[in-house]
Design a protein that fits this description.
With about 300 residues, the chain is an alpha/beta fold. It has a single domain, classed as TIM Barrel (Alpha-Beta Barrel). The protein contains 12 helices and 8 strands. Strands 1-2-3-4-5-6-7-8 form an 8-stranded parallel beta barrel, surrounded by 7 helices. Strand 7, helix 10 and strand 8 form a beta-alpha-beta unit. Helix 4 runs parallel beside helix 5 and helix 7 runs parallel beside helix 8. About 35% of the residues are buried. Bound molecules: flavin-adenine dinucleotide.
Length: about 300
């Protein structure tokens, strides 16, 4: 971590919540479901599909894990009632993965039941490597009972290309991302170019087979490379989509993708847990501090 990032991180950790809020709100829809649904509606009107995620992870109390489960179930109901183009992404440690197997299975089943009732999609985010296999196992145990579920493959993990090969049967739906956690070099690629290549190869693997690829990156060079391959290989539009995190500036690139008729999905996190969550994320990956600062600077310059 650079000294500048260490300094900024300790400064942010000690600031009151209200001071950090203006920075966080660029990337977080709000604290409430109502506010978040307004953001989703606005995004839908601009042509984007959406995924919402209640901020938080590593829940240490069964009661809290059950409460989050209930919140996710209610969320499907609200999305359906408001006829929004929006699905849900969950983190398994948010619904009890660290507590016990039985609890997480029960909570997952409840959320899945609601997804099914409303004919909506459920994605399981991928967390750090101690949970990779358990996440894949849970996905595999449930895919035969409901086809509208998906997982995430992280391009920085050395195992992911093999996972893509094994899992890529008809109906397989995966988000591909670079990976956000700080993983050891015996299991994870560290070189930017190698991670980009791995991302590209996994995407090719999925789209050369029968799966669906959600291409989740803000890396314009990588988007260009994948888009060229998709067009050269006549991959149908319903086999893939592009995904970005809400609030990350992408210039005109997303409009270009929308204008080509491609689906672009905004991943929109929300919830009262935004402060602790944002801090944990910053500590795990201080690179985000530089992103946030340079994105804010770009915005300020554009406004002038
Ligand atoms: C829709 C979506 C879902 C994701 N789900 C997961 C998941 O389940 N598991 C997981 O491990 N990771 C997940 N990630 C995070 C991902 O793994 C990367 O860490 C992150 O997207 C940065 O990589 P990049 O591909 O955008 O490329 P980079 O080269 O790292 O970033 C390109 C540019 O994007 C901007 N940028 C990128 N990330 C941020 C940010 N957080 N804040 C502000 N600006 C940013 C910066 O301007 C940067 O220069 C997800 C990402 C997206 C877009």
């Amino acid at each position: 971590m650079s000294w500048i990032n260490i300094g900024i991180l300790s400064l942010i950790s000690n600031l009151p919540k209200w001071m950090v809020h203006p920075f966080a709100k660029t990337y977080v829809a709000g604290e409430t479901v109502e506010r978040t649904m307004q953001v989703v509606k606005k995004m839908n009107e601009r042509g984007y599909a959406c995924t919402v995620d209640i901020l938080g992870e590593h829940i240490q109390s069964p009661a809290k894990a059950k409460k989050i489960t209930k919140d996710y179930c209610n969320l499907y109901e609200v999305i359906n009632k408001e006829t929004l183009n929006c699905n849900i992404s969950i983190k398994l440690t948010h619904i009890g993965l660290e507590l016990n197997e039985k609890l997480v299975k029960e909570n997952f089943q409840k959320i899945l039941h609601h997804a099914k009732s409303y004919n909506n999609f459920l994605r399981i985010d991928m967390e750090n490597s101690p949970y990779t296999q358990r996440t894949i196992d849970l996905y595999q145990r449930n895919i035969s009972s409901y086809e509208k579920i998906g997982i995430v493959l992280q391009a920085y993990l050395k195992r992911s290309l093999k996972d893509a090969e094994t899992l890529n049967t008809p109906g397989f739906n995966t988000r591909i991302c670079k990976g956000i956690y700080n993983e050891p070099s015996n299991i994870a690629l560290k070189d930017r170019k190698e991670i980009q290549d791995s991302f590209f190869l996994i995407t090719k693997q999925i789209l050369s087979g029968e799966g669906f690829a959600a291409i989740a990156t803000h890396d314009i060079a990588l988007i260009d490379r994948i888009e060229t391959w998709i067009e050269q290989n006549n991959i149908a539009n319903n086999r893939f989509e592009f995904q970005v995190l809400y609030g990350v500036p992408m210039g005109n690139r997303l409009n270009q993708l929308l204008n080509k008729g491609y689906t672009v999905r905004q991943y929109i996190p929300f919830g009262p847990d935004w402060f602790d969550y944002s801090l944990r994320r910053l500590k795990e990956n201080p690179k985000i501090i530089s992103y946030v600062l340079s994105n804010l600077a770009r915005r300020t310059i554009r406004r002038r």
